[in-house]
Design brief:
Layout: H1 6-13, H2 16-29, H3 34-46, H4 52-58, H5 68-88, H6 95-111, H7 115-132, H8 135-152, H9 157-191, H10 201-211, H11 225-241, H12 245-261, H13 264-268, H14 271-286, H15 289-292, H16 295-304, H17 310-331, H18 334-351, H19 357-373, H20 377-388, H21 397-413, H22 417-433, H23 439-453, H24 459-478, H25 488-500, H26 504-512
Helix pairs in contact: 2-5, 3-5, 6-7, 6-8, 7-8, 8-9, 9-10, 9-11, 11-12, 11-14, 12-14, 14-16, 14-17, 16-17, 17-18, 17-19, 18-19, 19-20, 19-21, 20-21, 21-22, 21-23, 22-23, 23-24, 24-25, 25-26
């Protein structure tokens, strides 16, 4: 049976501050066997992959190694206990965790018969729970209120109990309403993860049944603040994916207005508000140039929110950098975008290890294209190498594939002829071996090879080659079975800029009608 690597994953998930806290916590709370736990903790923390055999060899003279499974379980328990203690002192502690503490406080006060304090704490706790719309906590609080009424009330016990039960029924209805909206949102989100065009008739009918649910016919049926947010987010997503962009825009606009009408404390640390702004940007992007002007305003809102914990920082960075780069790419403001990249880079370097590979490669690619269109080929190559040197992965193969091709254009622009000659052979063999040498790749390699042997002062020969190059890509794109290839459009813009002896930025802006 393969040894469990759960402890390894737990240790390697800890942030530097959490590791430091655990070591301090361990010194204070682990007596006698402290060294055994810390030895095991440090040894696993140093491993790049979990190797239990290596652990056993390293500690073969230690007694605890005879009961390694027990020691691993005990160490896991100690780490979790330390993390709970760490979270209790954290300013980023979740509101839900704080509400659970309130319930525990009530239990202690009641057991100690500190009933005046209990009544005050119960009233305060209910107010907080209502504000947070945490109906499960409210139901637990009402259980304690019923207990107090039954056991402590001397007068009008029946009337008081009836009032609590009525309140409990109202809370249950609110909880059911909110849960139903939440479940609908997740069901529709799951259904829309694949392209609508790829769906079978049965799947489309199921989606249609979901969207026809009575609760999704009117916002008036949403009884809570969060129910209203699920209502607009669900319909916004549905209409966006179905191509009804004006309806999607309307729902996301209302969703953002809804968040911004809520108390400041409620929205500032809520990742859902940030995601709502992100979806709003997605729809603006889908609607094209008419809505691109909203990007700076919305991005400023997201950036002005409190940073929050590391997880929130990572998600917020993904959200902002993705849309910020899209803004400069789609508005043709490449030189402005190049300046912003210098600001983005500092935060990217601190967070890139935590970013999903697909997201990271997308960021690298968009940065490359901004520098490419602003014709800073040295910086384009620097960021291109980030993609080329990234460990091989099955995600975003289209980016990795085009990076191999784009490097030829960059080296050609930088007059790196010697590099190109060696690079041509190695990349050609690599693509051939991996069965990735398709029409587009072979075409670019072929024309770059032709350009290398043409006298750079022979404009006629160069233009003939560029013309043939551009026509070849256009012919490929005109085929009925053509599937969009990442990089084809960028390559055509480069070729046209050579023919017209003008900047790629101008060619892009002219082709897209920006500024006309």
């Amino acid at each position: 049976m393969r040894p469990s690597d759960n402890l390894f994953k737990l240790i390697h998930s800890l942030s530097p501050s959490e590791k430091r806290y655990f070591k301090i916590y361990a010194e204070q709370h682990i007596i006698g066997k402290k060294n055994n736990y810390m030895l095991l903790f440090d040894a696993i923390a140093r491993q790049k992959e979990y190797d239990e055999a290596a652990i056993k060899r390293k500690f073969r003279k230690e007694k605890f190694i005879r009961q390694l499974t027990f020691t691993k379980n005990a160490l896991t328990h100690k780490i979790m206990k330390a993390l709970r203690s760490f979270q209790e002192g954290s300013k980023n502690r979740s509101e839900s965790a704080g509400l659970k503490d309130l319930v525990h406080n009530l239990e202690i006060l009641y057991q100690k018969e500190l009933l005046n304090q209990f009544k005050k704490e119960l009233k305060r706790s209910k107010k907080i729970a209502y504000q947070a719309e945490d109906f499960l906590i409210l139901l637990r609080l009402l259980v304690w209120e019923k207990k107090y009424v039954i056991e402590q009330s001397a007068k009008k016990t029946r009337q008081k109990l009836k009032k609590v039960i009525e309140e409990e029924n109202k809370v249950l209805q609110l909880h059911t309403n909110q849960t139903t909206y939440y479940n609908l949102s997740k069901q529709i989100l799951t259904s829309l993860r694949s392209k609508v065009s790829d769906k079978k008739k049965k799947e489309l009918l199921e989606l249609e049944d979901l969207i026809q649910h009575p609760l999704l016919q009117s916002e008036e049926q949403a009884s809570t603040f969060m129910s209203k947010t699920y209502y607009h987010d669900t319909l916004g997503l549905y209409h966006w994916k179905m191509g009804n962009l004006s309806k999607a825009f309307s729902h996301y606009e209302q969703l953002v207005d809804l968040w911004e009408s809520s108390p400041q404390s409620e929205k500032q640390d809520n990742m859902l508000y940030r995601q709502s702004l992100g979806n709003y940007l997605n729809v603006c992007h889908a609607m094209g140039q008419d809505k691109m002007g909203l990007f700076p305003f919305i991005l400023k809102k997201i950036k002005s929110l409190p940073k929050g914990n590391l997880e929130t920082q990572i998600k917020t960075f993904q959200l902002t950098v993705h849309h910020e780069l899209l803004y400069y790419l789609n508005t043709g403001k490449f030189e402005e975008g190049a300046k912003v990249i210098e600001i983005i880079e500092a935060e990217l370097r601190t967070l890139e290890q935590q970013l999903p590979t697909s997201e990271l490669l997308s960021i690298y690619y968009n940065i490359c294209i901004i520098y490419f269109f602003s014709e800073d080929f040295t910086k384009t190559l620097l960021w291109l190498n980030e993609i080329l040197s990234h460990p091989r992965t099955d995600v975003r193969k289209d980016i990795q594939q085009f990076a191999k091709i784009l490097q030829f254009i960059i080296h050609y622009e930088l007059d790196n002829e010697e590099i190109l000659e060696n690079l041509y052979r190695s990349v050609y063999r690599s693509l051939k071996k991996e069965e990735q040498l398709h029409e587009f790749e072979e075409m670019v390699l072929s024309y770059i090879k032709q350009l290398l042997v043409i006298n750079p002062f022979d404009k006629k020969a160069l233009n003939e080659c560029y013309n043939e190059f551009g026509e070849a890509i256009s012919s490929m794109q005109a085929k009925p079975d053509y599937v969009h290839i990442l990089g084809a459009q960028e390559t055509i813009i480069w070729v046209v800029s050579k023919l017209q002896e003008t900047s790629m930025g101008d060619i892009f802006r002219k082709a897209t009608g920006i500024g006309q």
